[in-house]
């Protein structure tokens, strides 16, 4: 078998011979596969790809539950000048053994390469890019800052080249076009220096433009042309050299041309180069603004921190800090790394990470996150996560990954860009031929003008920039709102969802019970009862016990000592507190101990109907109080769901909780579709049922049991305060946990998709409309030809329009502002008369 189609894939999930068979059958089902052999001992599969793509094999194995271990390499690319460059680099990378997928973003100048673990060295990737005619280097955690410096250097170079070209091209334009625009100037030039001398000056200055600032077009465009992969540089090089060459012949060997065609077009070559360079300068300025969100995030990371070493505290570079190092955080400083506080108290502003505006109290044992800002206190903390493991680094990586992704909507533009330049060159040749055959005299001059105009006005860059610039700005703005797109294509999928389903516990609700109702029997003191009950529950880890304790702490109650505490399985507990015998638990516990609770029965049933958990308290054999505990809905949850409905998105709940509790929460929040008492595996089936009934479905969850549903949904949104498993299974992360994030994610997704469609429409309409105009189709009707100089200006403006339109996404405002969760506070007593 051919060696270049043979790959070895390290596999996860292989546990038995049955797994081997299923993995092999999954691969064999891929069209074009040659052969496959999976080895259980080595946990590897050897595959002869045949005509199949490695990405298809990887997808098939992942769907079968035996994913090939992969890793991602991010490359910074330099030397790209048009969208066609990105396609060439992608093809160069994709052909390497072990590369599953390669995506190059022309706007961000980055490549996102997915490779089989250990199958492709980073140097091999860099070398492949170099062989394609470009430069690459592997990204590091500070890559955005280095990229910022690189972009600044690129901007300075582009500005210098544009200004030099303008200075040299201006006299050429005045000498040639000035005479056409102002007849008196034409006569003045003829009488003072003569037209032949004027042409000679134009020749010298235009040659300087082409050999100086315009040299880059030839240095990159000619080799690309010779490789059979012409790009935008090739078009400019061909157009300007045609104008310069024709004019040079007319100047030095006029006898070679017909009498009617002896004219020069030096101004076209010089001004084209100047305008294209000005366009690239302005484009570089605008493009630099699209990556502002990443640079802001990287700017949150301090360069150094104060570390305890050998009994002294020294300023140490972040890169040299290790896990378990003890760090000092002074008032007003940024937290350098993720870790746990071991000494001190302070408030920390976490708004730049979570979006939560209020500072958060930190003391011994609390977690601090890199990039956040300390208040007025001093803290010592232990570094627990460093380098790429910090939350800030992971956020940056997620944003970078999303910004480098390609959306399905971009597929057509990519296909067009791949063949665009060769097609334009063919159109230019056809244009020249038609003008030479049927054009009026001087046909050669008309043919030259039309052919050069076609080459110059064509703009693949606008099509290449249409999607990635919008993605960069859109995902950056989303990060500002606390929404992280882990997969770029989720940006499109989320905007198209018809229904958003939510887990209940921890997603729609706070995820922890609180005391919602407290009904003491007549004549009994409320605080005394709460003191005794909290004392009895103080040794229990039950969630409701913790809710009772929290209510007592909120009132500042001093708890007595409980004795003879005994947990009664499934019923409650009994204890002695300050000489009183307490029973705390269900109605069944009261009945079995001969305690009548008829006076509170109506309220007991009311609490159950509302989805709350009622808890009865008996003191010395008589009913004393009724507590109601519930997992309250998150502040702002109802407003978030209402906002989703206003946007035309249906909402549903999928939960493992009892139907009564689920329906009670659904009534509170206005949810019409409820799937209750669903096991974790059943949540996946529930998503499938909703998809069949309503179309594209998104799922929002936070727990391990939500992972199957997050993976099954068309787009999964994980609450950032949830488990790592849920976050890893999701496509979008809502950092703060506020459901306003889901609304804002939908808003930025739809705004970005609208922006992309506008850009694509402009890019295609521009080229579709103006290439024929440049070819001269309007000449028979109007008698007007498009000047190559105007063509160059239009080409430059087309890319600037796309970039400027994408930058409008920075002004997108949240549809819903996040609400700060309310603290657990006093629950007012609600006494009722005993019957």
TrEMBL record:
Q: What SUPFAM superfamilies would the database entry show?
A: Calcium ATPase, transduction domain A, Calcium ATPase, transmembrane domain M, HAD-like, HMA, heavy metal-associated domain
**One GO biological process term:** copper ion homeostasis
Q: Which residues span the membrane?
A: 161-179, 199-222, 234-257, 263-282, 416-438, 444-467, 760-779, 785-807
Question: What is its subcellular localisation?
Answer: Cell membrane
Q: Which family does it belong to?
A: Belongs to the cation transport ATPase (P-type) (TC 3.A.3) family. Type IB subfamily.
Family matches, as NCBIfam families: ATPase-IB1_Cu, ATPase-IB_hvy, ATPase_P-type
The name on file for this protein is P-type Cu(+) transporter
What is the species listed in this Swiss-Prot or TrEMBL entry?
A: Sedimentitalea arenosa
Q: What is the lineage of its organism?
A: Bacteria, Pseudomonadati, Pseudomonadota, Alphaproteobacteria, Rhodobacterales
